[in-house]
Amino acid sequence: MRALVTGGAGFIGSHLIDRLVARGDSVVVIDNLSSGHASFIQNHIDTGHVTLVEGDICHPEDVNKAMAMDIDCVFHLAANPDIRLGTRITDTDLKQGTVATYNILEAMRVAGVKKIAFASSSVVYGEDAPLPTPEDHGPCMPISLYGASKQAGEGLISSWVGTFGLQAWIFRFANIIGARGTHGVIFDFIHKLKNDPSRLEVLGNGLQEKSYMEVGDCADAILHVMSQANEPLNLYNLGSHDTASVRRIAEIVVDVTGCHDASIEYTGGDRGWAGDIPRARLGIEKMLKAGFDVKMNSEEAIRYTAECLLEEIGLE
Ligand code: NAD
Questions:
Q1: Ligand 1 atom at minimum distance from 173 CA
Q2: Second label for 229, Cα 20 to 30 Å away, from 22, 74, 84, 219?
Q3: Which of 14, 31, 218 maximizes ligand 1 atoms within 8 Å of its Cβ, making it the mutation to test the pocket?
């Protein structure tokens, strides 16, 4: 199979590509390298298994160029990864999420590409959803601009399935963490301790409680579910069984980095920023029923990620 991975030089995309290449697929990547790194997939580029098209999915001509490369299936992962950005710049998620997803779908229609997997998010459920939240919870009322763009992307994909006969797998991810992470709470904490090992500032009161999934589990889950679920439109939460608090993450990062004298200071308030959802846990029954289970729970994934990122970032 020949796959097009949008955002394939990014954190989750590069782990997914490791698996696609391992199973024998050839891969085209379109990425503008805004938050991704060619080095994450350079080994596969060197062996000829991956072709990198440096381009922007906001530009239809770039998307058309990649889509014309005999693609069987699109994995659409490119997006602005920073939920907080929407509090300052209000059109980023609209352009790089909603409109860019339209560009991908329209290029697929024109090129006759029929399959798409989409990286959506738990944040589409909004703040008042029951926990753990099952896929059939509704109505979904996201409270961040990022969440709104993910919901819009899901709607566009569903409409292309209904109107143009696409087959789609929509994955609502929990917080995905692991090696090569370039953003997120553990990445931020390690950078803060690198700048000042005596103090760790935590946004909010530290009681935010979410579930964390290791990126290898996430990439394996995507491919497993796609091999098992064969409806025209397939919707799956991907997450782990439990949650961890931000307070616990701070303690684990302090422990792993050896900055035992760091004072952990909370900025206060029930959330990290406007649009943040303080408590999130996905129902994963559907994923389990499809025959996939995670190898790591939230705390194991957090400790493993802290160890990997400490090695990648270093404290010196
Ligand atoms: P990432 O930033 O590492 O990956 C995104 C990739 O897309 C990067 O390589 C970036 O350079 C590229 N990109 C961004 N805008 C682009 C554009 N306009 N044109 C071409 N390339 C562009 O982030 P990630 O954590 O790997 O996220 C991958 C996907 O998963 C995103 O859609 C994200 O919203 C979604 N997601 C991630 C998480 C998580 O916890 N990491 C949770 C839920 C959903």
A1: 43
A2: 22
A3: 31
pLDDT at 55 (0 to 100):
98
Distance 153 CA to ligand 1 centre (A): 14
What is the longest distance spanned by two Cα atoms in the chain?
Answer: 59
Which class in CATH covers the domain with range 2-176+213-238? alpha beta
Find the 258 Cα to ligand 1 centroid distance in Å: 30
Q: Is the pLDDT confidence value at 316 over 90?
A: no
Question: What pLDDT score was predicted for residue 225?
Answer: 99
User: pLDDT tens-digit profile of 35-68?
Assistant: 999 999 999 999 999 999 999 999 999 999 999 9
Query: Which active-site residues does the annotation give?
Result: 146
The single-letter DSSP state of residue 183 is: S
Question: What is the C-alpha separation between 275 and 297, in angstroms, rounded?
Answer: 26
Distance CA 19, CA 95 (A): 30
Q: Ligand 1 centroid to 77 CA: how many Å?
A: 5
Say what the pLDDT of residue 98 is.
Answer: 98
189 neighbors 250 (Cβ within 8 angstroms):
yes
Q: Taking CB atoms and a 6 Å cutoff, what residues make up the pocket around ligand 1?
A: 7, 9-13, 30-36, 56-58, 77-79, 81, 96, 100, 119, 121, 173, 175-176, 182
What is the domain partition of the chain in residue ranges?
2-176+213-238, 179-211+242-281+296-312
d(CA 187, CA 80) in angstroms, rounded, equals 17
* pLDDT tens column, 163-218: 999 999 999 999 999 999 999 999 999 999 999 999 999 999 999 999 999 999 99
CATH class of 179-211+242-281+296-312: alpha beta
Q: pLDDT above 70 covers what percent of the chain?
A: 100
What is the length of the chain? 316
